[in-house]
Each structure stands twice: as C-alpha cells, then as structure tokens.
Amino acid sequence: MRILIVGAGAVGGYFGARLALAGEDVTFVARGAHAEAMRSRGLVVRTPSGELRTPPLRVTSLDGARGPFDLALIAVKWPSLPAVSAKLPGLLAADGLAAPLLNGLDSEDAVAREVGESRVIASIAYMSAGLSGPGEIDTLAPTRAGLAPYRPGQEARVEAIAALLERAGIPVRRGSSYRAMLWEKMVWNAPFNAICALTGQRAGAALERMEDLARAAMLEVIAVARAEGAEISEATADAMIALTRAEFPLTEPSMLQDVRAGRATEVEILQGAVVERGRRAGVDTPVLRTLAALVRGLSPRASALSGAG
C-alpha cells in the first residue's frame, strides 16, 4: 500500500514513522529543517514505552508528491486543509482513501467536497505529542486512533485501515457513528485546550485546580452534541476526567503549544465551533463562550481562522 502523510508534525510524523517501520511504502509531505532532518537521518520518536528510530525517509512537497496513493493521512492545521484537499484528486488512486486527522468537526466534509464522499473515512488521533526539534517527536501518553465510516457501506474499508494501523503498532477504536466519535473527542478538546492555553498548565495540573470549570465546559459540549443528534451520555465527562488523570496528566494540548510559539490558535474550530453550533441549536454555552473570548485575547492572529468551524 502506498501511503501519503500530508503534514509530518507530531501527529503525522508519529503515524508515518510507525507505518514506515512496519514496512509500508510511505511518503511524507513536510518542509524546512524538519523535512531535511527526516530526509537525511529519519525520525526519532520518544514514547512512554521507549524510543523509535526510522531510517532516512522519503520526504517531498505537496506539489512534488507523485501518486497514485492508496491512503492519504492528513495531519495539517485547518487553514491549510482547503489547499491540501484541492490537490488530493490528483494524488489518490481511483479507489484510494483520505483520512483527515485534524481537530474539529468538519474536516471530513471539507475533504469530501474535493475527492467525493466514497473516498473519505472519518478518523481521529488520541495522543499527547509535540515536536522537540527537527526530526524529533516526543509523546507523553499512549497513542490511539479512532476510525469510523463517513458514509454507509464503508465498514470493510474502515476495518482494512484499522488492521493496517494495528499492524504498525497503533491501537484503533472502531466507531459506528462518525459524528459521535468526533463529538466525543471534542468533549475533551474544547475545554482542555482552552483551559491549558489560558493557564499555561498541563492537563493534569489544570484539572486538579479547575475540575468544576472543565466539567461545566464538557457538559456544554455534550449538550450541543446531543442537540445535533450525536448519542453521547453526560457520563462521558466523568470518563474524560478519569482518562485525563490516568493517561494524559502530562499533556500539553496543541492550543497551549500554539500560544507559547506565538502561532494562531484553533479557537474557531474548537470552542468557537461549539458555541456557534449551540447558538444555532438553541443551546446556551456561557462557559465555552467565555473561554473562547479569552483565548482570542491571547492570540491576535486567531481572527485569521474566523468562520473555519
């Protein structure tokens, strides 16, 4: 299987490294010093269970990639997704699949508009990771993937990709409802990304000091999800809090990393998207609305993402 990893940061780099070490034919799209390090000496991936090292990797630009590819794993930030999606029809095989590993609720729809609904499957990454230097990825907790059919009839194809990832050492949670899967991740993502970015704390420390705030924000996400028809129980908030304590206390969410680096945040596709969907559904979200306003104040460039959710 020919696999294209579009966006070789912490998420794409980890998935691609695992697949390459499993013997798959992997091409990475990356740039700058990180791309050069991958090309010349490979990736170093530090995990809680040990260190992984790949040999030098095949790295190119998006314009330089040469298909057809059987699978494209897309791990870019939201603002880059339209340009990436527009290139995919010329890169995917006729029966190839695209799997976006982005935050938010709309990535599958955006990709499907370019490649067609039958060539998209829903996917998410459950991980705590960051780049510690060119060609170096640090993960602070166990990494898993989530996969679900984007449209009916894709169950066998989802299972084939799940089996591929598991052969590469990436456990996979299978879902029957992709909307519920995306919303479930948002239950954690929207509250903790904001709280950690605003306080400068890792997830575990933030939880110990502000559990009531985190829970209130989680319940708002769940209320909006249920108003949109996603079958998510309020008990999901308790499960996420327990998971944070057990597996993700050291997590520095991407929004915290973005604020520290002076980058635009994903406030509009995380907190902003839930607030807007709640407004349309008649569900009030005062906690998330406040968190979104505070995050926008931290990131003067966040307005560049307005409307993305």
Describe the structure.
It is a single chain. The protein has 309 residues and is an alpha/beta fold. It is 46% helix and 19% strand. It contains 11 helices and 12 strands. It has helices spanning 10-21, 32-41, 81-87, 107-115, 155-167, 178-199, 203-227, 235-246, 254-261, 271-281, 286-298; strands at 2-6, 25-29, 44-47, 50-53, 58-60, 69-74, 92-100, 121-126, 129-133, 136-139, 144-149, 172-174. It has a 5-stranded parallel sheet with strand order 5-2-1-6-7. The protein has a 4-stranded mixed sheet with strand order 4-3-10-9, with helices on one face. Strands 8-11-12 form a 3-stranded mixed sheet, sandwiched between helices. Helix 3 runs parallel beside helix 4 (107-115). The longest helix is centred in the C-terminal third of the chain and has 25 residues, at 203-227. The protein starts with a strand and ends in an 11-residue tail after the last helix. Mean pLDDT is 94; it is low at 301-309.
Largest sheet: 5 strands, parallel
Secondary structure: number of strands: 12
Distance between the termini: 33 Å
Q: Calculate Rg over CA atoms.
A: 18 Å
Strand order of the largest sheet: 5-2-1-6-7
The proportion of strand residues reads: 15-25%
Q: List segments where confidence is low: pLDDT < 50 over at least 5 consecutive residues.
A: 301-309
Output the structural class.
Answer: alpha/beta
H and E order:
EHEHEEEEHEHEEEEHEHHHHHH
Mean pLDDT score: 94
What level of helicity do the residues show? Answer: 40-55%
Q: In DSSP terms, counting alpha (H) and pi (I) runs of 4 or more, how many helices?
A: 11
